[in-house]
């Protein structure tokens, strides 16, 4: 077959090896991930026939409306996801932005040849009660090592939603603690909280932004506003929702207008804080994504975030930055908010996805004085920390953040060129590192492009109403960006 070879890879890092998956030559790159040279699509449709059969099988017990295809995770490798119909897609969506080192990275596979690691995996503790002897050291050397500057405490959790959910609770507890000072809980508080009434269950709120996505659990869902289908029929808190900036692109040609947009949104934040104060539901915290992801990859300027932090400080509200999707390096810095040069550390930073387990970093102030207030069975997972430790080593050793900036520049410049070639179809390329998106002229064209790109071997994702987003792994290189751009051009020409 014709599609494997060497010519698109940087020579110093590559050599070719026979590999018996399909008896094809695979390209070996960097710390040994074997990859096909380019995508292969064998089936006429995706899902192909085998995926369709499996969908029917799964449909007997589960809703399958969101399933795109069934993957073969034994064969998937590096930046390429293999499906059960023999299709090999260049994956620039990576399980909704959650795969840092691609598929079957040899360094991660190796970890589970170690008996000690297997024992960590199978003896999963209730970490809040019976942590293993290595847990304090692991938290210090792995998670605190990547803590956002100024945050010296960590609460580990499972997923993004439950991280936000518990972070909200920490913020409410912090807020009430400021009011209560050193006095003990009153009998009235203890009794009223049991029937969901104030003063024990106080009327506090979290301010969020239109277009935000912070999860689907009940508290987090009240701060999610990206699609009605996430929310309809589910009761929500009456919490304030401010506008998030909607910029005009290219940014450098719309500076004054975009600055006005920042001011409009920030004005709304302050007015809503005032309004909810008078309503008797003071804003205890503000939650914000550094780049709104599900809502359409909406960016806001560093100035916006710095001013938002000032508003929070002035009004005694905590600033929670949700780095569930942006955290872990794909914006070219480990945390996206590092791009903003905030005057103070954020109060809380939540994470999940690429970091394998969920949780939040915070300062001492957000540790409840009493035990057992922020708690659940697992409180994270030491098995996932084994993976995270190795992932962080590879990121450092292979300078993957530098790579993200290099590969991201190729992809971003290429998208801007495609915009110029196809101005009736594409506009508003934006983002940082490889965390990029482009707008299409309408939703129909966007959906068509995402689907046709897949049939040309590139798995992307839609976000918002009209955007295509790119969320490759950190091992996505310049030559992968060129493949994406070539295929994208081919697809655009067909419209
Ligand atoms: O439709 C969904 O449920 C999706 S699609 C992408 C996500 C969820 N992202 C999860 C996410 C996120 O992007 C941000 C910024 N905050 C919180 C979450 C929730 O994380 P999980 O899904 O782990 O609960």
Give a concise summary.
Helix content is 36%, strand content 16%.
List keywords for this structure.
single chain, Aspartate Aminotransferase, domain 2, binds ligand PSZ, globular, disordered N terminus, 14 helices
Question: Could you walk me through the main structural features you see in this protein, from its secondary elements to its overall organization?
Answer:
It is a single chain. With 495 residues, this protein is of the alpha/beta class. The chain has a domain of 272 residues: Type I PLP-dependent aspartate aminotransferase-like (Major domain) (Aspartate Aminotransferase, domain 2). The protein has 14 helices and 19 strands. It has a seven-stranded mixed sheet with strand order 6-14-13-12-9-7-8, sandwiched between helices. The chain has a four-stranded antiparallel sheet with strand order 15-16-19-18. A hairpin with a 6-residue loop joins β13 and β14. The radius of gyration is 24 Å and the shape is globular. Bound molecules: ligand PSZ. Ligand PSZ binds next to α6.
